[in-house]
Amino acid sequence: MLRLCSIAVFTFLLIVMARPARAQDAAHSPEPPNMAALVQAAAKEGTLDVAWGDVYGGAEGVRRAQDEINAKYHVNLQFKYSPVPNGAAFQNQVVQEIRAGQTASTDILFHIRDQTLAKMVIPVNYDKYIPGLPSSVMFYDRRSVIVVSTILAEEYSTKDVPPNKVPNSLAGLLAPEWKGKVATMPYQGVIGWYLGLADVLGKDGMVKFYTALSVNIGGLMTCGDSDRVVSGEFAFFGLDCGDQEVRLRQRKGEPISDFYPKEGTAIYAFSPGIPLTAAHPNAARLFIAYLLTPAGQKLLWDEFGCDNYLLPGSRMAPVIAAAKKKGVKFIDIYGIDVQHPELDDYQRTINTIVNQSK
Amino acid sequence: MARPFVVIPALVAAAAILALLGFVIVLSFSRMQDGVIAGFAGFGNFAVLLGDPNLPRIVSNTLVFAAIALAVSFLLGVPLAWLAERSDLPGRSLIWTVMLASLVLPGFLVGMGWLLLAHPRIGVLNTVPMNAFHLASAPLPVNNIFGMGLVEGLVLTSLTFVLIAPSLRTMDPALEEAARMSGASSRSLLWNVTLPLVLPALVAAAMYVAIVAVGAFDIPAVIGLGSRVYTFSTFMYVHAYPADGFPDYGAIAAGGAVMIVLALGMTVIYSQVLRRARSFAVITGKAYRPRLTELGRWKAAAWAFVALYACGALILPFLLTLIYALLPFAEPLDAGVFAHMSLANFAQVPWNLVLTGAIHTGELVIVVPLAVLGLSFAISWIVVRTVVPWRYVLDGIAFMPHAVPGILFGIGASLAALFVLQKILPIYGTVFLIGLVYTIGWLSFGTRIVNSSLIQVHSDLIEAGAVSGARTGAVMRDIVLPLVRPAAVGAWIYIVLLCVRELTLAAFVSTPKNLTLPMVAWFLWNNGSIHTGAAVAVIVAIALVPLLFLYLQFGPRSDAMFGSAVSER
Quick check: is B47 in a domain? Predict the structure, then answer.
């Protein structure tokens, strides 16, 4: 009897473990015509599955969005957040799922980085839900929408870099005294390619800079890992994934700051999209649309440390304006891969340089 | 005596292994475009792999890293196993507890702990002497290939211990008694009798641990990636998860194909060891409880040795993880650090995720060890106890998943589930897929343990059962299974712990739908929530304490039953 029960439990567990995900096709899900219809459609779906790192405030940001959306639209949606360790790699995994016709592991790709990835998400007319939304925030045939803007900066430890030694340029990182104390990302090319633009350093200048920087690089770290700067393991981290990280840490009193390089500072963006095989496309539309509202922008500023400087009432806009007054040269780089196909090659060049094995 | 109930599961397991490895081979000759197969590439992927300018350095790094890890794990693990099983050290069962507890701590946490201890700029082992003696450079930097090998060796010591200890426990004392009667000294006894008797287990364990070290991911990732010191696994990882485009699975698979060829070589060598192993049968059915060596005045030194290991592999890494879980942000470890500690990170733990991860892990803990041991027994029985001509081929196949780096194995399984099996067996993104990969991946471990145990069961016992009229099932149930039970219990506990702490395989077949408990900790740790991740890791470690007590309760009892069962027969 005991043996039979054991076999039954074992078999039951196997069945439970093997329950497959429900197949879905967001690409053919009709787009609700207005916010009321969208709320109704999202309520019918009931759930939103999202997965990313600390973007949009991570777990706390998603929880707050769930509570605010439920309160504002009188629905009872359940948002399920899962952390992922490497956002870019995870998005590639989701692309594989989409190509295989599998339900995507997340209802939202947190950032549509280029036109290739944009082909994996559905177009959405967010201006149907957010009246007056400027068309300049929608990219790649409305497949992605900028919800936050961020400034690519160089982070430094205020304990290890005295105020009189804080550089204001990329060249400052090449000083011999910082040898072994600079960290960069293993995928620095994703961000640093803009330095190859003609009005920044140009391709030759970009290669020269990263080749020289490679000598000073003491290690590699990923976005969101600025604890390693705070701890003193590295004096600098650059280019970083956006100044929101430093802003959030400064609010907590951590000994970290950043500077905008005078050679040219990039304004980048985080712009989500909805996978072609998302299980809950309407809940995803509602989530993204909410982030574009004033309340959603406030949430992002509080939890993620930045908002969209192109939207009214932005808190990032004054930050950018103040830096401009100080002479910082800003370049808006989101979406320019369409005009600059050569940037793809720049990415690989930079990554090869910074990832050389010791 | 190859009966269908043994042959069928063994062949199914072998077919699953071959199918997965075959898929890797197919990928290695495939042209990939945007991450999917787009045609035949010939040897193009191999050319890409060999043309990588980093390859020579990575090969040398990997070999040095594995050699150091193997040396450290054997220098620590073998003496610890001997102390636990063959010495009269008082309270020596505590050594098993320490070894199992060290398995509880995920390797990446040990790596982080040692990074904080011995980092050249922030590690206390370096900053203190540098400040005290005005040294220009760090005396004990951990972020190089030697430091990484040392830490990996510490992590692998428990594996070496688990592989060696059962063989030491189940040795025939007759040969040692004979040597003693002939006047052999303790040293002579050790070198001329004991070590030769456990030689097959030592060779098998060395091969096993060396391959684990070659494919190790956690320590190279935590310590090496950040310092640009790559080994084979992190090299593969970088190719598998590029941020500047889709993964080049073709080049990764080409690397995997090379590993498969190397694995074949290792398998042949291992088979040679196994062929000679019958002459090492050390359980004969007569009283075989080995005599314990008296340590005398060396007892204190022995305990100091155990304590040193426990500090390096268990206590210090756990303490540092705990400190991280209590700190709001990272800071150098000095006296002022205590002022900033609080339980705030525990309040931020995403409990719904932890619960989901715990449920998934619980399912794996129940199913995977049973599946691994059941299939391992079927394979090992054919390999060790039959004379079918394909038995060594079967053993070689069972050994191969171990030789393939876990990363590749995970990627292969994930892609096979996604693009090949999706229509007929939709298991992508399920806990079942993780369980399947774990089961196949750990079959090599299971079969090594069961092989070693079955080798030591003398055929006289089985023949006696058969002559007495017992059927095959009865012989297995009443004679073989009780005799291999100590090894099986050890292996079961080890696989349970692997289920609870495994990251490498899980990382490549996980989606947000099938996260396990350690994956939750690892994901949090790596996505910027380091301190919350540390809090979850501490919770995982504490939750595993009951398992340790479970072993303490039932481990010795099963041992006693084992001994009495033999004497009764």
Answer: no
Of B143, B435, B523, the CB nearest to A84: B523
Report yes or no: B119 at the A interface, CB cutoff 8 Å.
yes
Residue at B38 is within a domain: no
- Per run of 10 residues, the mean pLDDT along chain B (length 569 residues) is 80 90 87 76 88 87 95 95 88 84 77 83 85 86 93 92 80 75 79 79 84 84 84 80 73 82 73 61 53 83 94 88 86 78 88 89 93 92 87 85 72 82 85 92 86 77 77 77 80 82 79 86 76 84 74 49 31
The minimum CA-CA distance between B507 and chain A, rounded to whole Å, is: 10
B10 close to A (CB below 8 A): no
- A254: which DSSP letter? -
Q: Which of A52, A92, A357 sits opposite B228 (nearest CB)?
A: A357
**Boundaries of domain holding B105:** 4-33+54-568
A240: closest CA among A254, A261, A255, A209?
A261
Tell me which of A54, A55, A231, A356 to substitute to probe the interface with B (most B C-beta atoms closer than 10 Å).
A231
Sorted by where each starts, the structural domains of chain A and their CATH numbers stand as 28-147+271-304 (3.40.190.10), 154-259+328-354 (3.40.190.10)
Specify the pTM.
Answer: 0.79
CA nearest to B353 within chain A: A82
CATH code of residue B229: 1.10.3720.10
Q: Is B34 on the interface with A (CB under 8 A)?
A: yes
The reply to whether B547 falls in a domain is: yes
CA distance B463 to chain A (A): 28
Whole-angstrom CA distances from B73 to A192, B81, B159, B232, B449 are: 42, 11, 8, 20, 18
**Nearest by Cα to A156 from A214, A251, A268, A234:** A234
Cα–Cα separations (whole angstroms), residue B565 to B339, B461, B463, B465: 58, 13, 18, 14
* Interface pTM, i.e. ipTM: 0.76
The answer to the question of residue B39 being in a domain is no
C-alpha distances out from residue A205 to A170, A199, A202, Å = 11, 11, 5
- Determine, for residues B228 and A355 on separate chains, whether the beta-carbon distance falls below 8 Å: yes
The total number of structural domains in chain B stands at: 1
